[in-house]
Amino acid sequence: MKIGVLALQGDFREHLHAIAQCGEVGMEVRRASELDICDALILPGGESTAIALLAHNYDLIQPIRARIETGMPAYGSCAGMILLADRLVDGAPGQQTFGGIDMTVRRNAFGRQVDSFESTLSFNSHNLHAVFIRAPWVEDVGSRVEVISSVTTSDGQSHPVAVRQSHLLATSFHPELTQDQVVHRYFIDEVCKSR
Ligand code: GLN
Asked: Measured from the CB, is residue 45 less than 6 Å from ligand 1?
């Protein structure tokens, strides 16, 4: 299995490192011909507006949408979560996403209180140390979306921060920045290999 990482902007190198730590083959994706030979795709953390703009300039929006629609497993962390959302709140004017997950994502949701924080989360029966950097949260999900992890804010509200819809996985946080490969392993073993 070849796991592509969209390498236009953001922390794609850290995702490639995590893929290698899991014993899998990763490759940088910058053009449609590279996407064509990937079995799965990771959308990294970074700046979702910049990634979307570059994806547009590299003619990658439609090819990525088409692969997502035809079942290619994809995982997005932080900016990558935003890019997998069907709907955005507080997106930049005209901001495009690839979409695929029936959810509304609020960009920079935690940003007004604290720009960055770390927290321990439960993820698929594992305790996980999670890093949030100007992170989004999931505002609402459709019936096909499974909420894997949530964070409770100081107002007592619970917000999903890890979700899955069949072959698509998204997290508000950055598992590529910590040494724990639980999320990448889940993507590889549960999301990719179950297909
Ligand atoms: N706030 C960024 C965005 O809107 C995401 C931040 C991140 O990926 N760490 O794209």
From this structure: yes
